[in-house]
Fold this protein.
Amino acid sequence: MTALRAAQALAGALTLAGLGWTLWHGVAEPGTALAFGLLIAVGELARWGARRGEREPAPLGAAGALAYALLGESAGLPTTHGVLQIVAVVVAGTLAGAVPHVARGCRFAHDHLVRRVLTTAFAAVCFQPLYNSGRLDAVVGYGPFYALFLALLLLLTALCDAVLAALTLHARTRYPYGALLRDELRALLGIGSAVCATGVVIALAVAVAGLWALPLFCVPLLLTQLSFRRYVAVRATYRQTIASLARATEIAGYTSPGHAHRVAALSRAVGRELGLPEPELTVLEYAALMHDIGQLSLVDPVPEGATALLPAAEQRRIALLGGAVVRRTGVPAAVAVVVERQADPYREQPVPARIVRVVNAYDDLSREAAQDALTALEQLRLGTARDYHPAVVESLARVLARGGVTGPAAG
């Protein structure tokens, strides 16, 4: 938490310094500053429909900020804006684009602005002094070494952004920082690489063709961003469909209200605690939502749906029935495997199945006779010789000690 506050304080100091310096000295090349400020604002406006926790909710705005930080010439003429003006323009554009979202009642993303300011300032500090002093030209010139220098700078900037993103999530959720950082680094191969590449291309294009190059090179990324929003919406609908299917056991009276959703949210939090990557967390969440669907094949419902209290053979039979049902729903086969193997001895289970088994048992035990969390955990620890994996039980204990599901754990 101290590191996050230090990052926020640094971003605030840079913002105040940038705005103050720009107001005092005036805006250098106001046309260029206005064009890039508008580009960043448009990118922020296109955030409409973004989900909280999305790694880069405004890729066009991020690419525009990076391009302005790496801009050394415009239409063949050298630019004179400095690092502090870059920070001021980026902050102004980001805030201008956020106004409509705030007016619609959306919460302003302070963490998003902190990341944007710090990563842009980092790129600008590494590039602008070298370029404006002529030392970059003297050392690397404008050939392949210049491209290599930009690639190295982009890599360092992307790493800086990944460190900040993981730090923010760690402070909000208390999940292991190493696992969060690994997820962010994996994401660099996706939207992160597109943002970096577009930012460099915009800077190089404006250096040759002037500001007319902005719309030409920004439209493809904007269309990609809007297409990605539609993909996110489809994925959200897909998850809602699975969640609705999972509620069939509740509607039929086989499980208690909210059981599947509690198990799914807590399973995802435990998976995060254990360092599972995002694709495995998605499989885990879907499997946890549908873990009890095999009970629909039973003639007589299990009392309160508490399968953890049944004999092992009966648990495995219900799990196999559930896997057969899941395979007919069209969800990935990995989800069905987790559902089928949730009742196996833990030494034979994949990690997601271990998590579902432990969390499902915890929810069943904590509801039985109104036991508290400590009593339910103690019963799970007594079963670690065969039924429940010790590491998963201890991870669940740590999640519960922090207050259960926090932040975006429920996805």
Remarks:
- The mean pLDDT is 83.
- Residues 213-246 form the longest helix (34 residues).
